[in-house]
Amino acid sequence: MRPVTEAGKANCIPVAMPFVDSLFMPRTIGDRPDVIPEGATNFAFLGQFSEAPKDCVFTVEYSVRTAQMAVYGLFDTDKEVHPMYDSAHNPRYLVAALKAISR
Ligand SMILES: Cc1cc2nc3c(=O)[nH]c(=O)nc-3n(C[C@H](O)[C@H](O)[C@H](O)COP(=O)(O)OP(=O)(O)OC[C@H]3O[C@@H](n4cnc5c(N)ncnc54)[C@H](O)[C@@H]3O)c2cc1C
Question: Which residue among 58, 84, 95, 100 is buried most deeply as judged by most CB within 10 Å?
Answer without folding.
Answer: 84
